[in-house]
Design brief:
Blueprint (H helix, E strand, L loop, with lengths): L2 H11 L5 H5 L7 H4 L10 H22 L4 E8 L2 E12 L4 E2 L6 E2 L5 H13 L31 H5 L20 H9 L16 H15 L3 H10 L23 E4 L2 E4 L9 H4 L2 E2 L1 H13 L14 H7 L4 E6 L12 E5 L4 E5 L4 E9 L2 E8 L4 E7 L7 H14 L11 H13 L6 H4 L6 H4 L2 H15 L2 E4 L3 E4 L2 E8 L3 E8 L7 E9 L4
Length: 524
Amino acid sequence: MNKYILLLKFLLFFGLFPNEWVEAQQAPASNSSTYQPPVFTDASRIEKIKALLPAIEKMYKAYAVEKKFPGMVFGIVVDDQLLFAGSAGFTHLAKKISATSTSLFRVASMSKSFTAMAILKLRDEGKLQLDDEVSRYIPELKSISLLTTDAPAITIRDLLTHSAGFPEDNPWGDRQLDISHDTFIRMLKKGISFSNSPGTRYEYSNMGFAMLGEIIRVVSRISYQEYITENILKPLGMTHTVWEYTKAPAELLAHGYRWQNNNWQEEALLHDGVYGAMGGLITSIEDFSKYMAFHLSAWPPRNGVETGPVKRSSVREMQQAWRFSSLSKNASDPNGQPCAMVNSYGYGLGVSTDCNGNVHVGHSGGLPGFGSQWRIMPGYGIGVVVFGNLTYASMSAINREILDTLVAGAGLKPRQLPVSPILQQRKNELVKLLPDWKYAEESRIFAVNFFADHSLAVRKKQTKELFERAGNIIGVSELIPENQLRGSFILHGEKVDIKVYFTLTPENPALIQQLDLQETKKKD
């Protein structure tokens, strides 16, 4: 047993120290055995969302009319289920086939995250590394001339984050959807024109994701379509999702249109090919909602068995902001207040964080004849998805409006983090110690830096003055955690309140390394 604990127990026997100071030195249980994931605390959360669904359906349908979409389908996903699906218009104008939640739309660049997920699955299986040079799997790249002589080799991570230095290639890339493997390889042998040096900045590239599809083929020894279908789509129950439009049931397949010369012109459907890895997936709202639910299920980090085709941690990795793309300085929050948003790219996913720390994850899609978008808010457990059969139909504005309506209209709050045992323990110890700091240095609940940063004498003087202004302490609030080792609470005084903020060290057991006491006005 630690010699200090023996000494404390000896002193405790003679009644010199409080018992909890001895307990403070006992090593706590392992992190995983005490960890509690954040949870939704509003028991009526789902019912509040359901109450908004009629209004949301009207908003989507009004948008379809305003934008003159031939057909549109949409869905609301909450936690692990498709809570609502709706539709408007037709998937085939000549035959007047109505759009439904089972209609199959080509979702274009929404396909990219499936390709990224397949890469991470292969990484998790030890078959590749994200920082591998792409030329290891595509030898034709070994002879290409990069933009500068000091440019680094292109890596798989560069492709995943649109950072390989390739130029933005919409809409050229859309017309490459059906090219063959041999055609793609011949294209690469001719060389690549670069807009940036690899690894320096974001620029959207369909070619990069076509290369990721080729890497999947080389590593798995089957086509990327087969690998994704067998290892992601089928395990998720997306059994009606296909890559080649001729394999879709004719009565379910959405045809794409363009408005031209005051008339609807049907766009020719493109066959599947190498560039399908960037935008070839054909799916329905019912099928795609299962993929969205899987992305939502990766949160929060927690104990428990893995039930998906890819590890939860890898799904969360996809949703991180790996490469900055833009700043939306004129954005607003769900209540219409100014709230700038930083936009980034993860792995096959767009990631946006607003001024309040709320995170949006998803992707848009656009091809001749089609436009689509899905967007989730992992912290709130909600997501929206919409498909349309109009060339490059823009869906981002309506999806953002729908999410704002859900959050503000239902009064949704993100998951709340429970207080960790060690954070609660240190709070209790602080409450008993303040304001006189009796036996503070002997308590051994403070880290080695604590009294070196501010002496005990200084702390006593400042605390005494603060507590005199507060008057008698008449209550103590619940601890509000920021994470497992940091939080704050309020000491309610007769005259003013005192906010107590503290943070713990990475030691085991964790000790108090910082403590801030701040006078704050009493709330009405």
